[in-house]
Design a protein that fits this description.
Layout: E1 2-4, H1 10-24, H2 34-37, E2 45-50, E3 56-63, E4 66-72, H3 81-96, E5 103-107, H4 111-119, E6 123-130, E7 138-144
Antiparallel strand pairs: 1-2, 2-3, 3-4, 5-7, 6-7
Length: 154
């Protein structure tokens, strides 16, 4: 189930985020305030994915047209939750932006995320080097949702 995030979800989302960080290296650097990282300035919406037992196992956020903070617990992957979160936030972004396609950015080393976005029809539009506070700059690829494929049914 995909539903809007509540403040009560944040402690569990931080725990899941830690598991994702250890497993997959996302976020690239562990934030000093992980709950704050999940609630950035300009946040316009956030959603969670629950597993069949009602446990919070995934998250996606929206800042204007930008999809961000999308992750699913390593233990819950392979159930289509990442795609469902992405479709929910994409529909909300398209509705809020007057039909402009949502955008997102991803570290190119995150091949699982890149594969998800491309399976969902997102289109790469450019890449650039950025300093994310690690030992070396990272390559970030920007994606745009396909206009014709925007779904509003979540």
């Amino acid at each position: 189930m995909i539903r809007p995030r509540t403040a009560a979800d944040l402690p569990e989302l931080v725990r899941v985020l830690r598991a994702v960080h250890v497993h997959s290296g996302y976020p690239y650097t562990w934030p000093a305030d992980p709950a704050g990282w999940l609630t950035p300035d300009g946040l316009t919406g956030a959603w969670v994915a629950e597993d069949g037992q009602g446990r919070v196992v995934g998250h996606a956020a929206l800042r204007g047209r930008e999809v961000s903070r999308l992750y699913v617990s390593p233990a819950a992957r392979g159930q289509g939750l990442g795609g469902r979160l992405l479709r929910s936030v994409t529909a909300a972004a398209a509705a809020a932006s007057g039909g402009l396609p949502p955008v997102l950015a991803v570290h190119t080393a995150d091949t699982a995320a890149t594969a998800l976005y491309e399976r969902q029809g997102w289109l790469p539009v450019r890449s650039e080097q950025q300093d994310w506070g690690g030992p070396a700059p990272v390559t970030v690829r920007y994606y745009e949702a396909p206009v014709a494929g925007l779904r509003t049914d979540g």
